[in-house]
Protein backbone atom coordinates (compact mmCIF):
# COMPACT_ATOMS: atom_id res chain seq x y z
CA UNK A 1 0.00 0.00 0.00
CA UNK A 2 1.36 3.42 -0.94
CA UNK A 3 2.47 5.72 1.83
CA UNK A 4 0.33 8.83 2.45
CA UNK A 5 1.63 11.96 4.11
CA UNK A 6 -0.43 14.74 5.60
CA UNK A 7 -0.02 18.49 5.86
CA UNK A 8 -1.10 20.77 8.69
CA UNK A 9 0.32 23.87 10.40
CA UNK A 10 2.82 24.23 7.55
CA UNK A 11 4.32 20.84 8.43
CA UNK A 12 4.57 17.56 6.54
CA UNK A 13 3.38 14.72 8.77
CA UNK A 14 4.02 10.98 8.46
CA UNK A 15 1.60 9.11 10.73
CA UNK A 16 0.98 5.47 11.59
CA UNK A 17 -2.58 6.45 12.52
CA UNK A 18 -4.90 7.52 9.67
CA UNK A 19 -5.68 11.25 9.93
CA UNK A 20 -8.65 11.93 7.63
CA UNK A 21 -9.10 15.37 9.19
CA UNK A 22 -5.85 16.57 7.57
CA UNK A 23 -4.99 17.33 3.96
CA UNK A 24 -3.00 14.61 2.22
CA UNK A 25 0.15 15.12 0.18
CA UNK A 26 2.35 12.99 -2.05
CA UNK A 27 5.57 11.62 -0.53
CA UNK A 28 7.36 12.69 -3.71
CA UNK A 29 6.63 16.33 -2.81
CA UNK A 30 8.61 16.08 0.44
CA UNK A 31 12.35 15.67 0.88
CA UNK A 32 12.38 15.50 4.68
CA UNK A 33 9.29 14.87 6.80
CA UNK A 34 8.82 17.50 9.51
CA UNK A 35 6.85 15.38 12.00
CA UNK A 36 6.68 11.64 12.61
CA UNK A 37 3.75 10.08 14.48
CA UNK A 38 4.50 6.51 15.49
CA UNK A 39 2.60 3.85 17.45
CA UNK A 40 4.82 1.89 19.81
CA UNK A 41 5.10 0.51 23.33
CA UNK A 42 6.19 3.34 25.61
CA UNK A 43 8.28 3.01 28.74
CA UNK A 44 7.60 4.70 32.08
CA UNK A 45 8.45 8.42 31.93
CA UNK A 46 11.61 7.93 34.03
CA UNK A 47 13.10 6.07 31.06
CA UNK A 48 13.21 9.20 28.89
CA UNK A 49 15.88 11.26 30.61
CA UNK A 50 15.48 14.19 32.94
CA UNK A 51 11.70 14.45 32.89
CA UNK A 52 10.07 16.12 35.87
CA UNK A 53 6.70 15.01 37.20
CA UNK A 54 4.27 17.95 37.16
CA UNK A 55 0.98 16.08 37.50
CA UNK A 56 -0.47 12.62 38.05
CA UNK A 57 -0.21 11.83 34.33
CA UNK A 58 2.18 14.52 33.08
CA UNK A 59 5.98 14.57 32.99
CA UNK A 60 8.11 17.04 31.05
CA UNK A 61 11.43 18.68 30.26
CA UNK A 62 12.19 21.64 28.02
CA UNK A 63 12.13 19.43 24.90
CA UNK A 64 9.93 16.49 25.85
CA UNK A 65 6.43 15.89 27.20
CA UNK A 66 5.03 12.56 28.44
CA UNK A 67 1.24 12.60 28.78
CA UNK A 68 -1.19 9.85 29.69
CA UNK A 69 -4.93 10.02 29.07
CA UNK A 70 -6.06 7.16 31.36
CA UNK A 71 -7.94 4.45 29.51
CA UNK A 72 -7.27 6.07 26.13
CA UNK A 73 -3.65 6.71 25.11
CA UNK A 74 -0.16 7.66 26.28
CA UNK A 75 1.92 10.18 24.32
CA UNK A 76 5.58 11.10 24.18
CA UNK A 77 6.11 14.39 22.31
CA UNK A 78 9.76 15.19 21.56
CA UNK A 79 11.71 18.16 20.20
CA UNK A 80 8.90 19.45 18.00
CA UNK A 81 9.47 16.60 15.55
CA UNK A 82 8.06 13.38 16.96
CA UNK A 83 4.87 12.11 18.59
CA UNK A 84 5.00 8.54 19.90
CA UNK A 85 1.78 7.00 21.17
CA UNK A 86 0.59 3.82 22.84
CA UNK A 87 -3.17 3.20 22.80
CA UNK A 88 -4.91 1.62 25.77
CA UNK A 89 -6.36 -1.83 25.15
CA UNK A 90 -9.56 -1.76 23.11
CA UNK A 91 -9.66 2.01 22.59
CA UNK A 92 -11.20 3.34 19.37
CA UNK A 93 -9.19 5.36 16.84
CA UNK A 94 -11.53 8.37 17.06
CA UNK A 95 -10.67 8.81 20.73
CA UNK A 96 -6.94 8.57 19.98
CA UNK A 97 -7.24 11.13 17.18
CA UNK A 98 -9.14 13.53 19.43
CA UNK A 99 -6.19 13.79 21.83
CA UNK A 100 -3.51 13.40 19.15
CA UNK A 101 -4.80 16.35 17.12
CA UNK A 102 -5.42 18.33 20.30
CA UNK A 103 -3.10 17.96 23.26
CA UNK A 104 -0.24 16.14 21.50
CA UNK A 105 -0.03 18.35 18.41
CA UNK A 106 -0.49 21.42 20.61
CA UNK A 107 2.54 20.45 22.71
CA UNK A 108 4.58 19.78 19.57
CA UNK A 109 3.76 23.24 18.17
CA UNK A 110 4.82 24.82 21.47
CA UNK A 111 8.12 22.95 21.21
CA UNK A 112 8.55 24.50 17.75
CA UNK A 113 8.42 28.00 19.25
CA UNK A 114 4.88 28.98 18.27
CA UNK A 115 2.22 30.80 20.27
CA UNK A 116 -0.58 28.23 20.44
CA UNK A 117 -3.99 29.74 21.15
CA UNK A 118 -7.27 28.08 22.11
CA UNK A 119 -9.78 29.24 19.54
CA UNK A 120 -10.78 29.29 15.89
CA UNK A 121 -9.32 31.12 12.90
CA UNK A 122 -11.46 32.30 9.97
CA UNK A 123 -10.16 33.64 6.66
CA UNK A 124 -11.56 37.06 5.80
CA UNK A 125 -10.05 38.28 2.55
CA UNK A 126 -6.26 38.16 2.68
CA UNK A 127 -6.09 37.97 6.48
CA UNK A 128 -7.77 36.06 9.26
CA UNK A 129 -9.82 36.66 12.36
CA UNK A 130 -9.09 34.59 15.46
CA UNK A 131 -11.78 34.09 18.08
CA UNK A 132 -10.63 32.98 21.54
CA UNK A 133 -12.68 31.92 24.52
CA UNK A 134 -13.22 29.35 27.21
CA UNK A 135 -15.03 26.08 26.48
CA UNK A 136 -18.73 26.75 25.97
CA UNK A 137 -18.31 30.38 24.91
CA UNK A 138 -19.53 29.59 21.39
CA UNK A 139 -16.30 29.70 19.36
CA UNK A 140 -17.10 26.67 17.20
CA UNK A 141 -20.70 27.80 16.66
CA UNK A 142 -19.42 31.18 15.51
CA UNK A 143 -16.80 29.63 13.19
CA UNK A 144 -19.45 27.37 11.65
CA UNK A 145 -21.72 30.37 11.05
CA UNK A 146 -18.85 32.06 9.19
CA UNK A 147 -18.38 28.87 7.15
CA UNK A 148 -22.08 28.89 6.25
CA UNK A 149 -21.51 32.37 4.81
CA UNK A 150 -18.71 31.05 2.59
CA UNK A 151 -15.70 32.00 4.74
CA UNK A 152 -12.89 29.44 5.05
CA UNK A 153 -11.89 28.04 8.44
CA UNK A 154 -8.13 28.23 8.87
CA UNK A 155 -7.88 26.31 12.17
CA UNK A 156 -10.10 24.86 14.88
CA UNK A 157 -9.30 24.55 18.59
CA UNK A 158 -5.51 24.65 18.11
CA UNK A 159 -4.46 27.97 16.54
CA UNK A 160 -0.68 28.46 16.12
CA UNK A 161 0.65 31.98 15.54
CA UNK A 162 4.20 32.99 14.62
CA UNK A 163 6.03 35.79 16.43
CA UNK A 164 5.48 38.10 13.45
CA UNK A 165 1.72 37.54 13.44
CA UNK A 166 1.04 34.81 10.87
CA UNK A 167 -1.58 32.14 11.57
CA UNK A 168 -0.78 28.63 10.30
CA UNK A 169 -3.57 26.57 8.69
CA UNK A 170 -4.65 23.60 10.77
CA UNK A 171 -7.84 21.54 10.75
CA UNK A 172 -10.92 22.70 8.82
CA UNK A 173 -13.63 21.36 11.07
CA UNK A 174 -15.73 22.34 14.04
CA UNK A 175 -16.48 20.24 17.12
CA UNK A 176 -20.09 20.94 18.04
CA UNK A 177 -22.53 19.68 20.64
CA UNK A 178 -25.85 18.41 19.30
CA UNK A 179 -27.79 21.48 20.51
CA UNK A 180 -25.38 23.83 18.70
CA UNK A 181 -25.74 21.84 15.49
CA UNK A 182 -29.51 22.06 15.78
CA UNK A 183 -29.27 25.82 16.44
CA UNK A 184 -27.34 26.20 13.17
CA UNK A 185 -29.90 24.19 11.21
CA UNK A 186 -27.52 21.31 10.45
CA UNK A 187 -28.53 17.64 10.40
CA UNK A 188 -26.44 15.28 12.53
CA UNK A 189 -27.15 12.35 10.18
CA UNK A 190 -23.83 11.18 8.77
CA UNK A 191 -21.72 13.25 11.15
CA UNK A 192 -19.10 11.45 13.20
CA UNK A 193 -18.99 11.76 16.98
CA UNK A 194 -15.64 12.94 18.31
CA UNK A 195 -15.86 10.05 20.79
CA UNK A 196 -18.43 7.23 20.71
CA UNK A 197 -20.05 8.12 24.04
CA UNK A 198 -20.34 11.90 23.49
CA UNK A 199 -23.15 13.91 21.90
CA UNK A 200 -20.47 16.06 20.27
CA UNK A 201 -19.80 15.84 16.56
CA UNK A 202 -17.01 16.62 14.11
CA UNK A 203 -18.33 18.84 11.34
CA UNK A 204 -16.00 19.08 8.30
CA UNK A 205 -15.89 22.60 6.86
CA UNK A 206 -15.05 23.60 3.30
CA UNK A 207 -11.57 24.98 2.70
CA UNK A 208 -8.97 25.01 -0.03
CA UNK A 209 -6.31 22.36 0.73
CA UNK A 210 -3.70 24.81 -0.64
CA UNK A 211 -4.51 27.52 1.91
CA UNK A 212 -1.32 29.22 3.09
CA UNK A 213 -0.56 31.04 6.37
CA UNK A 214 -2.49 34.29 6.73
CA UNK A 215 -1.73 37.53 8.54
CA UNK A 216 -3.59 37.91 11.81
CA UNK A 217 -6.10 40.71 11.20
CA UNK A 218 -7.89 40.75 14.53
CA UNK A 219 -8.25 38.91 17.83
CA UNK A 220 -11.63 38.65 19.50
CA UNK A 221 -12.22 37.30 23.02
CA UNK A 222 -15.70 35.73 23.17
CA UNK A 223 -17.57 35.75 26.47
CA UNK A 224 -21.13 35.99 27.80
CA UNK A 225 -23.17 38.60 29.66
CA UNK A 226 -26.76 38.97 30.85
CA UNK A 227 -27.76 41.62 28.30
CA UNK A 228 -29.81 40.74 25.21
CA UNK A 229 -27.45 42.20 22.58
CA UNK A 230 -23.83 41.45 21.74
CA UNK A 231 -21.15 44.11 22.07
CA UNK A 232 -17.60 44.53 20.78
CA UNK A 233 -15.19 46.66 22.80
CA UNK A 234 -11.44 47.25 22.30
CA UNK A 235 -8.97 46.10 24.93
CA UNK A 236 -6.01 48.28 25.82
CA UNK A 237 -2.42 47.79 26.95
CA UNK A 238 -1.90 45.16 29.60
CA UNK A 239 -5.48 43.89 29.09
CA UNK A 240 -4.56 42.62 25.64
CA UNK A 241 -1.49 40.83 26.96
CA UNK A 242 -3.44 39.34 29.88
CA UNK A 243 -6.24 37.96 27.71
CA UNK A 244 -3.75 36.46 25.26
CA UNK A 245 -1.97 34.65 28.09
CA UNK A 246 -5.27 33.43 29.52
CA UNK A 247 -6.28 31.85 26.23
CA UNK A 248 -3.04 30.03 25.47
CA UNK A 249 -3.74 26.42 24.57
CA UNK A 250 -2.99 23.97 27.43
CA UNK A 251 -1.13 26.47 29.66
CA UNK A 252 -0.09 23.66 32.01
CA UNK A 253 2.05 22.25 29.17
CA UNK A 254 3.83 25.60 28.88
CA UNK A 255 4.59 25.59 32.60
CA UNK A 256 5.57 21.91 32.56
CA UNK A 257 8.11 22.41 29.75
CA UNK A 258 9.45 25.65 31.21
CA UNK A 259 8.33 27.73 28.23
CA UNK A 260 7.06 30.71 30.25
CA UNK A 261 9.66 33.10 28.79
CA UNK A 262 8.72 31.99 25.27
CA UNK A 263 5.03 32.55 26.04
CA UNK A 264 5.75 36.00 27.49
CA UNK A 265 7.75 37.21 24.49
CA UNK A 266 5.24 35.82 21.98
CA UNK A 267 2.24 37.34 23.76
CA UNK A 268 4.01 40.71 24.01
CA UNK A 269 4.85 40.59 20.29
CA UNK A 270 1.32 39.70 19.19
CA UNK A 271 -0.42 42.09 21.60
CA UNK A 272 1.73 44.88 20.17
CA UNK A 273 0.88 44.08 16.55
CA UNK A 274 -2.82 43.26 16.49
CA UNK A 275 -6.02 44.84 17.73
CA UNK A 276 -7.58 42.75 20.50
CA UNK A 277 -11.27 43.19 21.27
CA UNK A 278 -13.77 41.61 23.64
CA UNK A 279 -17.09 40.30 22.41
CA UNK A 280 -19.85 39.93 24.97
CA UNK A 281 -22.87 37.95 23.76
CA UNK A 282 -26.14 37.03 25.43
CA UNK A 283 -25.92 34.06 27.80
CA UNK A 284 -29.53 33.10 27.02
CA UNK A 285 -30.00 33.59 23.26
CA UNK A 286 -27.04 33.28 20.89
CA UNK A 287 -27.90 35.38 17.82
CA UNK A 288 -24.90 34.08 15.91
CA UNK A 289 -25.87 35.57 12.53
CA UNK A 290 -26.07 39.05 14.02
CA UNK A 291 -22.69 38.55 15.67
CA UNK A 292 -21.11 37.50 12.36
CA UNK A 293 -22.42 40.76 10.84
CA UNK A 294 -20.95 42.80 13.70
CA UNK A 295 -17.52 41.18 13.42
CA UNK A 296 -17.43 41.67 9.66
CA UNK A 297 -18.40 45.32 10.09
CA UNK A 298 -15.75 45.73 12.79
CA UNK A 299 -13.16 44.37 10.35
CA UNK A 300 -14.35 46.72 7.61
CA UNK A 301 -16.13 44.10 5.54
CA UNK A 302 -19.58 44.62 4.05
CA UNK A 303 -21.60 41.52 4.94
Automatic annotation (TrEMBL):
Xref: InterPro entries: P-loop_NTPase
SUPFAM superfamilies: PEP carboxykinase-like
Name under which the protein is recorded: Hpr(Ser) kinase/phosphatase
